[in-house]
Design a protein that fits this description.
The complex is a heterodimer of chains A (about 80) and B (about 325). By secondary structure, chain A is mainly alpha-helical. Chain A is about 75% helix and about 0% strand. In chain B, helix 5 packs antiparallel against helix 6 (about 160-170). Chain B starts with 9 loop residues before the first helix and ends in a 10-residue tail after the last helix. The chains are: A mainly alpha (about 80), B alpha+beta (about 325).
């Protein structure tokens, strides 16, 4: 239905959350602003993907695809952080 | 249509992701409570688990007001992040500052649009309290105290109870005149629609507080200060009853032997009518317990039925309105809240 596999995207986003959790829970780690922004971003994106899957997103298809492209970029960018 | 990604930084990605052209969608972006919950668990793990979090004691208040204390605490069995101007200082523990700071920033970011306040997650809830919150309204130390007390009290009290309790706690040590002036400033603040004061309370309730305080003797005041939470709770209940069921309110006042100046009918009739009203209620109280199921019906018949009840209710509403605006003429053209 969409240009992206939502289930795979959801799994990848949760993998980022797990990396962030690890970073936060270690007392010796400094939690950077980038990690903070990433956590905030991913938290919004996971909810968005879940809302898409449940059909509760009222948006033009073209806008949804753009948002999904942004999520892909986030997943790519997170690889540089962890 | 949404904007294209301008750069590849995380903050620009976040901004691009949340960007929506007006009228293009009704969808509201929100953060996943599940993710926020999991991240909170990580913060708790970092600080050594919930059981190792210190309790926020009343002796810590002055440290928070002086900007010397921040961190994560347990207050009234709730998890509270205490910040200073939205951030944490060294008192939070050098190794934990970045994690606490990070979590509060994540939570704050458009999370219900509130800061400080309550943040509800799935299995957790937490509060953010800021020692320097709303400094622009902190005209003096007593105002800063109120701002902090009210944030802390809102954690375990209803809005009105918290407001009243915080006002009195902040005014502790002030003279009667200074306390009255402080409460009057709050009434003006509540009546002024121009200011962005973050805490709301019905100014009529605040006006009633000044009336009650003005006729309280020293002993009663000392009793109230022993347990301000209970006093505030009873005070709010009393005000609600005064407006909803004035005769029952009066019966409770008469039974408790309180000052007759607090009765709903003060100013409605002459001294003889007031005495007759008090005697009639007293006779009923002598014949029946106040919690007897038929007491309320008998009370309404005693005072003269529905017509009298409506007249008293109208008088109460007029009184609280007039009392409020008599003292605050400069605000009298504004609608009552």
């Amino acid at each position: 239905m969409y240009n992206h596999d939502l289930d795979e995207m959801h799994r990848s986003l949760f993998a980022i959350v797990n990396s962030i959790k690890e970073s936060i829970s270690k007392p010796s780690n400094h939690v950077s602003e980038e990690v903070t922004n990433l956590a905030t971003t991913v938290s919004y994106q996971i909810q968005f993907v879940e809302d898409l899957k449940s059909g509760s997103v009222d948006m033009d298809r073209i806008v949804i695809d753009e948002k999904l492209d942004i999520i892909e970029k986030t997943i790519e960018l997170s690889k540089e952080l962890f | 249509m949404s904007k294209k990604i301008s750069t590849y930084s995380i903050s620009s990605i976040l901004s691009d992701f949340l960007h929506q052209d007006s009228n293009s969608s009704t969808y509201q972006f929100k953060k996943s409570p599940e993710v926020m919950n999991e991240l909170l668990e990580s913060v708790l793990e970092r600080v050594g688990g919930k059981s190792s979090i210190p309790t926020f004691g009343s002796d810590s208040v002055s440290l928070v007001l002086n900007g010397e204390l921040s961190g994560i605490f347990i207050h009234k069995e709730k998890l509270v992040f205490i910040t200073q101007n939205g951030t944490f200082n060294k008192s939070a523990g050098a190794s934990n500052i970045s994690a606490l700071d990070s979590y509060v920033k994540m939570a704050e970011h458009r999370f219900n649009g509130q800061y400080p306040g309550k943040y509800q997650l799935l299995s957790n809830e937490f509060y953010v309290v800021d020692g320097q919150y709303h400094l622009q309204t902190s005209k003096s130390e007593v105002w800063r105290k109120f701002n902090l007390f009210n944030q802390l009290n809102q954690i375990h009290m209803g809005n009105d109870e918290s407001y009243i309790c915080s006002l009195l706690k902040a005014a502790e040590g002030l003279s009667d005149k200074e306390t009255e002036a402080f409460i009057s400033e709050h009434i003006k603040q509540q009546l002024s629609f121009e200011t962005k004061f973050p805490f709301r309370c019905d100014p009529k309730l605040l006006k009633r507080l000044t009336t009650c305080l003005s006729i309280m003797n020293m002993e009663d005041k000392q009793c109230a200060y022993i347990d301000l939470h209970s006093y505030a709770t009873e005070f709010v209940k009393d005000f609600i009853l005064l407006r909803e069921n004035p005769p029952l309110h009066d019966a409770i006042q008469i039974e408790s032997g309180n000052n007759p100046k607090l009765l709903s009918v003060i100013g409605l009739g002459n001294a003889t009518q007031l005495n007759e009203y008090i005697t009639a209620i007293q006779n009923l109280l002598d014949a029946k317990l106040i919690n007897d199921p038929s007491f309320a019906t008998d009370l309404h018949l005693t005072i003269g039925g529905k017509g009298t009840l409506d007249r008293i209710k109208e008088h109460v509403e007029k009184s609280v309105h007039v009392e409020l605006h008599d003292d605050l003429n400069e605000y009298s053209n504004q609608p009552s809240m």
